[in-house]
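Our consortium's second objective concerns turning raw sequence data into structural hypotheses that experimental partners can test. To show how far this objective has progressed, the report includes one record in full. It was chosen at random from the queue rather than selected for favorable results. The single chain below, 351 residues long, was entered without modification.
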Amino acid sequence: MKLLFITQKVDMNDDVLGFTHDWLLEFSKICQRLTVIALSVGEHDLPDNVKILSLGKEAGRSKIKYLINFYKYIWRERLNYDTVLVHMNKEYVVLGGWFWRLTGKKIALWYVHKQTSLMLKLAEKIVDVIFTASKESFKLLSRKLKIVGHGVDLNKFYYRPEAKRRENFKIIYVGRISRIKNQRLLIEAMNILNKRGAGNIKIDLVGSPVYPEDEDYKNELAKLIGDYRLKNQIKFTGSVPNREIAQIYRQADLSVNLCPTGGMDKAVLEAMAVGLPVIAFNKTFAPLLNGCKNLILNDLSAIELAQKIYALVKAPQEELNLISFNLRKKIIGNYGLAALTGKIINELKDK
């Protein structure tokens, strides 16, 4: 297969979109040729059968220039691809779909978001197939929908059994600093735990604000940390390059994710892949986390969260090791990146 992959950014160091580089590596192993068009391009290290083309955002190009480059590339490279996979940006399906239809290309969209817009509805009419991670991550009814799960690079996110029980019990929350991520609840739970004498617990909030409202939320969190006198226990670590995030997980004792029920947050799967226990609120993860000391949070309750954290802090190391082993096993069986890209390519071959 000769694949055209269209995405927002190719940069192995990006803290949010760096995983795209891992996808491209896997696709390059099973595609004869892989052509990539990205809005922005940074550092990358890909095989010779991969060609990277930038629309020019990193060079400060205008949106008109983006559009000109887009049409130039899909025309110039037309003999180098027979299938198109658009990653998240349904706008490109609408912009290029007419040309790909006229030239007999197969068209696919990967989309993981609860939002249903007019642009998405138009894209759904154009594509041959839509891939998503879970039934909760795509809300538009479509016969073209294929639920294929997420993919974690198991070579990067590997399990390294260690005698954890360090002086401090480290909790991490990996994700954008944003109100929808509910980091405030973890701070409130830490306040409860602190009053119970659990001063050996440390929390790293890994991620940065993106939008102005996120900055306001971070300021609120910083004030709350000060009011609760938790500055020695909770810190903002900022963004971490994608290629370094696996080691961040391996150095922790627990990951917490308080996103609302919806699509699968890949941060939870990455934590599980390295054998890190995860407490999550998103009920989509219930089949994966139930049975492992009930790691699903029933309500957005600081008291319940504090209780679940405390139970893990006090659990015997043998019990934690068993949880780690079982979580990693579930990821290997269902959420490896090689398996995901294989599913996508096989589905596209059948179209």
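The partners drew two points from this record. The mean pLDDT is 93. The two ends are 12 Å apart (CA to CA). Both points have been shared with the crystallography group to help prioritize constructs.
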